[in-house]
Amino acid sequence: MNLKKAIQERRSRRSYLDAPVAPLSIEKLEIAAWECNRSGKLNIQIITNDKEAFGNLKKTYGLFSGVTNYIALVGKKEDPNLCEKLGYYGESLVLLATTLGLGTCWVGATFDKEVCRCKVAEDEELQCVIAFGNVKLKDSLKEKAITKAIHRKSKEIKDMLKAIEQVPNWVVDGMRCVVKAPSARNRMPVMFYYSGGVVAARIKGESLYEFFDLGIAKLHFELGVGKGTWEFGNGGMFEYEHSNFKRESAEGEHTNRNSGTEGTGDREA
């Protein structure tokens, strides 16, 4: 299973089995996290056998059970695109874990940040975590009830893509994966704009965790297209590998990897 296939298979899981994750799977996650850190200048960490972070019912509200492994999403406080990058690279680890047969879940606030075993320097911050581990093939009754309670109707491509001209097949391929992306409370806030051979992605920036959603959606689009790269920042553009078009924002605004805005809020998907 590759990452694109994993997009179709992935779903949030909140109940984990009391069984250790295979050492080879942990090694693959650690290697991938190292590559993410090198590329994104982050400090993502794979934490295993920690019962404390999800052991406080006052923090988890009983939404999770059996969580002892998680991916700690840590980065520099001064990075203006920190949350977006953590979303982008964090989701790549989610999809890798899916290919390894593991369950995952993005967690924004329902864990005890104070007792997490990750290492955070003074100029860094722990933004959120991704729970992972072995799960049953089918959702438990509790998981089904939680999903039903918080799930919203998913958006379609037409709800997330604006264009004033016919879009090429590669854009449609990207959007097919975007509509499968997890987001805070399934709000799917990221809008994509196509014009003149250029795609841009933008959010309103009403909450901090919309920037995680932005990074996640960008990764899904990129995997769906199969060739090309994004620039970070709210309104950042996608450079299609075979495109010779001038890179102008679909909204008429030039952005670069150092652009972006900040927000406040909470996230769990």
Task: Walk me through what this model shows.
- This protein has 269 residues and is an alpha+beta fold.
- Helices cover 32% and strands 17% of the residues.
- It has a five-stranded mixed β-sheet with strand order 5-6-7-9-8. It has a four-stranded antiparallel β-sheet with strand order 1-2-4-3.
- Helix 7 (169-178) links the parallel strand 5 and strand 6.
- Helix 4 packs across helix 8 (210-225).
- The longest helix is centred in the N-terminal third of the chain and has 18 residues, at 23-40.
- The radius of gyration is 18 Å and the shape is globular.
Explain the layout of strands and helices.
Elements: H1 3-9, H2 23-40, E1 45-47, H3 57-60, E2 70-76, H4 82-99, E3 103-107, E4 124-133, H5 141-150, H6 157-160, E5 161-163, H7 169-178, E6 191-195, E7 198-202, H8 210-225, E8 228-230, E9 237-240
Parallel strand pairs: 5-6
Antiparallel strand pairs: 1-2, 2-4, 3-4, 6-7, 7-9, 8-9
Widest sheet: strand ordering:
5-6-7-9-8
Mean pLDDT: 88
The gross shape turns out to be globular
Could you spell the SSE succession in H and E letters?
HHEHEHEEHHEHEEHEE
Give the proportion of residues in helices: 25-40%
Helical stretch count?
8
Overall structural class, as computed from helix and strand content, comes to: alpha+beta
The fraction of residues assigned to DSSP E strands is: 15-25%
Task: Describe, in short, the structure shown.
The protein has 269 residues and is of the alpha+beta class.
